[in-house]
Amino acid sequence: MRDITDATFEAEVLNADRPVVVDFWAPWCGPCKLVAPVLEELAAESTNVEFVKLDIDANPITASKLGILSIPTVTLFADGEVRETVV
């Protein structure tokens, strides 16, 4: 899983040519650290879905625009739209 930022979110998620799962997380979040290995494993096994992560502390604009209030939040985007969210 690679890191994305506020600056790259639109290009790498909203304009992606395939579905993208975004892990909204923060370094201090204990549950985020528990979820990360599972997402890493899914990312390694997946060929048609991209997995990325966005640190909400370093990139608050995107999290705010999307109304991310709790972390970890994992969201599936397809065709530039939110399709599913798990908090």
Strand-helix topology:
Blueprint: E1 2-3, H1 6-14, E2 20-25, H2 30-45, E3 50-55, H3 60-66, E4 73-78, E5 81-86
Parallel strand pairs: 1-3, 2-3
Antiparallel strand pairs: 2-4, 4-5
Highlighted features:
87 residues; alpha/beta; 5-stranded mixed sheet; single chain; 3 helices
Question: Can you describe this structure?
Answer:
The chain is α/β, with parallel strands linked by helices. Helix content is 37%, strand content 30%. The chain has helices spanning 6-14, 30-45, 60-66, and strands spanning 2-3, 20-25, 50-55, 73-78, 81-86. A 5-stranded mixed sheet has the order 1-3-2-4-5, sandwiched between helices. Helix 2 (30-45) links the parallel strand 2 and strand 3. The chain is globular and about 30 Å long.
Helix content: 25-40%
Give the strand line-up of the largest sheet.
1-3-2-4-5
Alpha-beta content class: alpha/beta
Task: Indicate the low-confidence ranges by residue numbers.
Answer: none
Please report the total strand number as a whole number.
5
Shape: globular
Average pLDDT works out at 96
**What's the gyration radius in Å?**
12 Å
Q: How many helical elements? A: 3
Taking the alpha carbons of the first and last residues, their distance comes to 19 Å
β content, as a range?
A: 25-35%
Let me know the largest β-sheet: 5 strands, mixed
Please provide the ordered H/E string of secondary-structure elements.
EHEHEHEE
